[in-house]
User: What shape does this take?
Amino acid sequence: MAGGQGTRFWPLSTADRPKQFLDLERTGRTLLQATFDRLLPLTGGPEGIYVATAARYRELVHEQLPEVPAEQVLVEPSPRDSGPAIALASLLIHRRTGGATLGFFSSDHRIPGADAFRAAVRDAIELADRERGLVTLGIAPTHPATAYGYIQRGEAVGPGFRVARFVEKPNADRARQYLEAGGFDWNAGIFVWRSDIILEELAEHAPDIAGPLLAAADDALDAVFPTLPRRSIDYAVMEHTRRALVVPVDCGWDDIGDWVALERLLAPDADANTVVGTHVGLAASGNVIYTGGVDDVVVTVGVHDLVVVKHGNTVLLVAKDRIADLKRVLGDQRLADLVG
Assistant: This one.
């Protein structure tokens, strides 16, 4: 899944080149490429990998993943959230293959424990095939996060569990209770299921999404898709189905949601600053600093807990605890007039 715009990593991530196409940690591979690398051993080759993306990113996908056949880049005609996107991809692959076991993976996740991740996906494949279920991976929580939904485990089934319930993003007290109680995992939005089963479940629980798609011929899907309601796959199916299963996994997963996430991924300097690029500081601590150009330098004196990003002709300066407000600023027409 590679269609998101990644606005929380502005100004490095833009609508023309969002974060899944960036090498944020400067490893030599973008997030999209790293996702491909991680999944390739599970598929036996590029012919087992499809990329769902927006029309404007088709060429970026070809540029970064030339191994993926052009016909396996599935273009979403318009942004309709994950429910319609997953429904369209599931339908197209089902029709092309006559039925397959599918995994859906976001292209902007960081997963350092690739072996543990792949082992969990193999367990999810086994469970999805044997139980005819909708399987999600449950990420082992490392702290009482309030930015993620949670999955409560129920009865054990093979290598996984039935889902007792999905929980919306909790407040801090409730998140601590989940960790203390045990049996709760983070919901990372990673899914494995048979194509026929997900289409059945969509038809039952989201007929306003599945109905128009299932009734349309392949050459009419582009016209139908923009008319579908915007709805996540969690709201459309997962919170209603009786077939939900979860396979827990501890793989170091991180969704790299915004600039502050770099603190979790990179080692800090002696003053607890997280730096990518070149930085000189005096009595400055707890900052996240990113320079985009090889000649760019950021100097800080006596400032704390800021995000400072220098990219091209643009500088972002924001308190770490206000990073969520970045999206509001990006909607300001004054900024759009200045930087596009």
